[in-house]
Amino acid sequence: MKTLVIIAHPDIEHSRGNRALRDAIAHDPNVTVRELYKLYPDFRIDAALEQQLIREHGNIVLQFPMYWYNCPPLLKKWLDDVINDTLFGSAPEKSLVLKGRTLQLAVTIGRVSERYFPPTRDYVWADDVARPYLKPELLDRHGTDIVEVLLTPFEQTAHLAGMEYGHPFVTYNVGPLARMGSINDQDMLARAQEYLQLLQRLDPVTQEA
Ligand SMILES: Cc1cc2nc3c(=O)[nH]c(=O)nc-3n(C[C@H](O)[C@H](O)[C@H](O)COP(=O)(O)O)c2cc1C
C-alpha cells in the first residue's frame, strides 16, 4: 500500500525546506502527497475523506516546519478531526486500521541545531517544561535530543493508535539563506534525497484495512 504524506506548511511555494522535501518525494509512485493548507484553506477538513484515504494507504508521514515548538495549527486540527475512534478504539487492543503501520515525522527547524542542545536557553526551557511529564523510558530513549522530546505527543499518539513510531527525520538550520549557519540550497537538496530514501525504506504495509 502506498505511503500517505500529509504536508502542513502555510506557504510552501515560498519555503525552502518543505518545498525541497516535497519536490523530492512528490513523483515517487509509492507516495501520495496531500498538502493540507492548499486543500483546506478555510480549515474545514473533510474528515471522512481523510479517513478513507488513510484506509487506502499504508504508512503515514507528517511533514511540517516547527512553529513555536509544535506543528502548524492545521496539522493539529487534522489530527483532532481525523485520528479518532473511527480509526482506532481508545484502548490499544481495539486498534485496527492503524495497527502495525509506521508514523514517520519529517520536521524542519529554523534554528541551528546547537540551539537545541545543552546548555542553551531553549534547551533549558524545553527540558524544564517537557521532561517532568515524560515517562522514564522516553527520557532514556531521547537522551539530550530536545526536539525529539518536544515531538513526544506525536509519539504517544502513534503508540495509542497501535502504530510504530519512526525515528523523526529532523532537518535543522532551515532559516533564511542569508542567516549565518543556514543550510544552503545544495545541502537542502541532498537532505531531500535522504528523505526520499527514508520513505522508500519504510516497511511496506500489505494488509487491507
Ligand atoms: C510562526 C513561526 C514559528 C516558528 N517557531 C519556531 C520554533 O519554535 N523553533 C524553531 O527552531 N524555528 C521556528 N520557526 C522557524 C521555522 O521552523 C522555519 O522557518 C521552517 O522550519 C523553515 O522551513 P521552510 O523553509 O519549509 O519554511 C518558526 C517560524 C514561524 C513562521
Write a structural description.
Helix content is 39%, strand content 13%. By secondary structure, it is α/β, with parallel strands linked by helices. It has one domain: Rossmann fold (3-Layer(aba) Sandwich). Strands 1, 2, 3, 4, 5 and 6 form a 6-stranded parallel beta sheet that branches. Helix 4 links the parallel strand 3 and strand 4. The longest helix has 17 residues. The chain starts with a strand and ends in an 8-residue tail after the last helix. The protein binds flavin mononucleotide. Flavin mononucleotide binds next to helix 1.
CATH topology: Rossmann fold
Q: Give the averaged pLDDT, no decimals.
A: 88
CATH level-four homologous superfamily name: Flavodoxin domain
Alpha-beta classification:
alpha/beta
Order of helices and strands: EHEHHEHEHHHHEEH
The biggest beta sheet reads: 6 strands, parallel
The distinct ligands, each listed once, are: flavin mononucleotide
Poorly predicted regions are none
Text of the CATH class: Alpha Beta
What is the strand content? Answer: 5-15%
What is the gyration radius calculated from CA atoms? 17 Å
Total E-strand runs: 6
Give the name of the CATH architecture: 3-Layer(aba) Sandwich
